[in-house]
Amino acid sequence: MAARHSLKKAREMLKSGDDSLFGLLSSYKIYNTYFQVVVSKENDRIAVLIAGNPKSWENIPLEKYKNYVRVRRLELGVNRLNIKYLSPQHIIMFYGPILGLKLPSNKVTFINNLDKDGYFILETSLKYMPLVFQNLKRLINLPPQKKYEILEKFIAEAPKG
């Protein structure tokens, strides 16, 4: 009787899919978040550009960022400039528009054009560059458990309907 019960349970698990953390995250593999960091010493500004699709970089007004230089991933100390399984909306909903940075709110500006043009921009003073780099490194290297926690919170707080 016990063997029959365990076999039935095993079949149910096969039908329901993979219950491992990777299996749960794999249903969100269509989501990715891409980052660019640009710096302007002339304007004393650093900007973090976020998009769900790299093609959205074309929608950013170039005249505003013509004096900015892109920071390479090696300068940031990361292997890649994207996060798998999470969309920009997931990250912004979980960490807020300041992306979890502990900065004075009057020193940060952000542009949220995710719905319209597909990009989000966070700008702050160049003196906060180490803090921005550290926070971006933490975001990019999120463990799978934290990614799933972010997704659970997004699903729980999403409007029903």
Largest sheet: 6 strands, antiparallel
Order of helices and strands: HHEEEHEHEEHH
Approximate strand percentage: 15-25%
Number of helices: 6
Report helical residue fraction: 25-40%
Tell me the number of strands.
6
Topology:
Blueprint: H1 2-16, H2 21-26, E1 32-40, E2 45-51, E3 69-70, H3 73-76, E4 82-84, H4 88-95, E5 108-113, E6 119-125, H5 129-140, H6 144-157
Antiparallel strand pairs: 1-2, 1-3, 1-4, 2-6, 5-6
Helix pairs in contact: 4-6
Question: What can you tell me about this protein's structure?
Answer:
This protein is globular. The chain has six helices and six strands; from the N terminus they run H-H-E-E-E-H-E-H-E-E-H-H. Residues 1-15 have low confidence and may be disordered. Helix content is 37%, strand content 21%. The chain has 161 residues and is of the alpha+beta class. Strand 5 (108-113) and strand 6 (119-125) form a beta hairpin. The chain has helices at residues 2-16, 21-26, 73-76, 88-95, 129-140, 144-157, and strands spanning 32-40, 45-51, 69-70, 82-84, 108-113, 119-125. Strands 1, 2, 3, 4, 5 and 6 form a six-stranded antiparallel β-sheet that branches.
